[in-house]
Amino acid sequence: MTATRRFVLLLCVALVASRCSASEDQHQDPTPSNDHVGTSSSDSGNGTSSGHDSSSGHDSTSSGHDSTSSGHDSSSGHDSSSGHDSSSGHGGGPITTLPIVSWKWHHVSTPYLVALWILVSWICKLIIEANHHVTNIIPESALLICFGFILGGIIWGADKVQTFTLTPTVFFFYLLPQVILDAGYSMPNKLFFSNMGAILVYAVIGTCWNAASLGLSLWGCHMGGAMGDLDIGLLQYLLFGSLIAAVDPVAVIAVFEQVHVNEVLFIMVFGESLLNDGVTVVLFNVFDAFVSLGGAKINAVEIIKGIISFFVVAFGGSLVGFVFGLLISLLTRCTKNIQIIEPGFVFVLGYLAYLTAEMLSLSAILSIVFCGMCCQKYINANMDENSVNTVRYAMKVFANGSETIIFVFLGISAIDKTLWVWNTGFILLTLLFVIVYRFIGVFFLTWILNKFRLVPLEVIDQVIMSYGGLRGAVAYGLAMMLDENKIKEKNLMVCTTLIVVYFTVIIQGITMKPLVTWLKVRRAAVSELTLIEKVQNKVFDHMLVAIEDISGQIGHNYMRDKWNYFEEKWMSKVLMKPSARKNRDRLFKVFHQLNLKDAMSYVAEGERRGSLEFIRNDHAYIDFKKKFDDDYYEEVMPDIMADMSDDHGEMSSGRDPVPSVSLEMHEQNMKAVRDSEDVNTHHLLQQHLYRGRKQHRHRYSRSHFDVNKDEGEVQEVFQRTMRSRLESFKSAKMGVAPPKSLSKHPKKEQQQKMSNGKSLDKTRSYYSGDEDFEFSEGDSASGFNPSYNSMPMRVTYRAGAGIENLGFMPDLDSGPSVQLPRWLEDSSSVVPSQRAQVQLPWTPSSLRRLAPLRTSTRSTDSFMMADAPPNAQQIDLPPPPSPPASPPPPPPPHHHHM
Amino acid sequence: MGSSSSNMDHIPDAQHLMQETGFSAAHLVRLYERFDFLDKDDRGELRLDDFEAVSELAMNPIGDRIIRAFFSPGRETVDFPSFVRILAHFRPTDTNRTRNGRNGAQPEPANSRTNKLKFAFQLYDQDRDGKISREELLQVLRAMLEMQVTEEQLQSIAERAIQEADLDLDDTISFDEFKKSLEKVDIEHKMSIRFLE
């Protein structure tokens, strides 16, 4: 709160300063405002004030010249200012000398103001979000509106006229589309479509009901004399009702994102707010036309036309969006060579979908929603992963940014004396009716819907749905579009709309969270992504379809199954890249994501603890092999693999060590089913390949650079630790390891020598002294420490192996002091030479090898044979038969089932 | 109601079934019609090939498992009461939320959360030993992901899935673990279909 107060204070100071500077001649005073802008980036507290300072200074100066009060970034404003520019900026008079610096405010005024206002709005958000204890109570949207009040007050104080208001043009063309596109793009499609029926009922019937009941009731009250003398007829009341009936998507998203209600409830309110736009536009246009026509000319034909136009507008809009969605999907199929601007297509075409629908006077919001919903699946599959992330983030930046601007300007627009026409009866009754009819409508429609719903909506949900019927900027935008000539009381309507908006967004927004808590509304489960859930969900889907088939019901699941089939067969085929089609299995994606997450958290943890922890952790390495260069895992992994399968041999009998990192556990067990090392190597390679896929996809300059940089950071640590681990494994097996691993060891040793020659042996000689001792300790720690058995395998614990082995920490401490110099020595002298010998000639071939392997992991041999240099092939040669001392675990019979 | 009760006469033990499963008379009549339709030879029982005659099931990756779930162990046929009892698992959970109250007195209805989950569980647990082994999970995964994912990936997926759920570290998923792992899943939504009347 103190920050807020300080901010207000600074604003006032800034205002005074700007008044002073504005009164001076602007040509003589270019530097102060430039300085202000300059400082705004350096310090957040001061920057805020100076940002305002300069902007309000410009406001006051510009208002004199710029007669268009219609808004800072409308095109007309730009035209007029550029006109000024040509006349006053350059042709101010005959110049006597060459001007080195000239002050050309009008040259830049419009874009400058736009940028400044964006900056100011976002800084408002920054200040708000800095105070978490405030945003916990008051939703951000409400606070933004309040900030808008303050800013508006400052402008009003400076100009005595409201220079900046939210105009319908700006709102509908420049601010709204990205918010809606984001909503469509991130729409949970399955959830949406499985509740589609209910959403449509609320959106269509509910909105019509709201509009009609509100209009008629107000008219009734007017007739009853509740509002005094007003020049509003029945049709105008209905027009007003239609513009204020619709629940606003922007406001709903803003409030409901902060209260995490359960997903069904959310999709109901959210879906309704998006889809009712079609209804609103139609109702608004129809009644607007009716008002123009006058009551006498309205007959049955006109009304029927109105009803038909509803279907045309709604379905036409959706269709336009659908078509554009397909267009985006198709385009992203072939943007492989221009990946840098690939994300741009989504935005441009999305915007075009909006404008096209607007041009055809169809529902633009529906159009862009459906555009986003249609293309999301295909573009996510088609585009490069970086592009997908770019789209996702850019979408959020635009949406969040313009949402902020919308709310701030909703506040600013209120501070305008000319707007305010107070009519207690009209305003209060509107407010009352808006809320009451919302409740009645929701409860009545839910009552009907519950007869058909599988899982009925509970009363509590209905209360929240009714209470969540927030009105917002769309209503305000529509109200501003009213024609003053036709509707005499336009200002009253606008300011009533504003009051309704403020009431719903601020009052209902603030009380929403307590209400949700108080009513114990089922919240959204903050669920961690788990594989088993994903598997089970798929099973559920199949199960329901099967049961419907058996019991002869043609229901929702049946339809969905049919649609999925159609989608799979036709749409995916046309709209998706063939390569993307192959590996887009959802389940696998979840698996992949989980693994990546684990790997990252593990790496982070390892780095935090220092590299030595990796040595101690007996199970840590598998994650990291993908960070290795090819030669490294070739030379290191087979050895470890052999060891691991041995380990597992012991394990499977005793089932003792529960590894702390989940990633490597499956590795071990998979290794267990492998019968020969040869397969082990291949298997590991495959593992490596498909998990590293994320990185291998990046073949283009920008992303490639990023990835390599990332990789390089951890690489050194890994190289060192892996090398020392390898050594410790070897020496451990030479000396103290159980006979099993010993029996396998010579063979591995041989391979090592064959593949890597002397350099590796050299490195080994550095370590063999204390490493084997250390390893045996570590081995017993992770293998037989009983504390491992009780350890749950959550992500947070995985990296905690070092903590668990507290008993061995002292030993650990003694280790680094001896080893560190050796490592340094090793990495500086041995590694480069080794890499120079082995790695460099490999790099292209290894890259080539990776790509095909991703898609067909079965054909490892052929690829290896074809591409790898001779020393790599040696690894692939069939190893000598395993000694009888270590019978490999028999492979389960299912293994090669596929 | 009049027409349905006249048809009710054909259904053996209808009143008792209605009470047990919670299906209404109209549901029961409709299901009986379906049962009759599936029962090509009018034996009053369904056999494996009767189920397999439903063509859509052939396309369902786990269709055969679901069919098998209809057969109690050792039986070759399904009579109407057991047919209905299985389907009762998929009734929407009762909304009056009285099931907590009557938990003690009466056995839980088939459409309770636990029983729904039990049904799902036994789709995996083919040997009915009360545990989902890795092998059993793999079989389901293999059925559902065929062609898209390699065997190695399947293995690791199965491994990881077991790990997630396996709390007592016996490398299998018991029913309790299964239930716990799906705690956050909206079973009422995901394992219910609307039976037409």
UniProtKB/TrEMBL annotation, chain B:
GO terms for biological process: protein transport. GO terms for cellular component: cytoplasm; nucleus; plasma membrane. It comes from the Eukaryota. The keyword Metal-binding applies. Keywords: Calcium, Cell membrane, Cytoplasm, Lipoprotein, Membrane, Metal-binding, Myristate, Nucleus, Phosphoprotein, Protein transport, Repeat, Transport. Residues 112-147, 153-188 form the EF-hand domain. It is found in: Cell membrane; Cytoplasm; Nucleus. GO terms for molecular function: calcium ion binding. The keyword Nucleotidyltransferase does not apply. Belongs to the calcineurin regulatory subunit family. CHP subfamily. This is EF-hand domain-containing protein. It comes from Amphiprion ocellaris (Clown anemonefish).
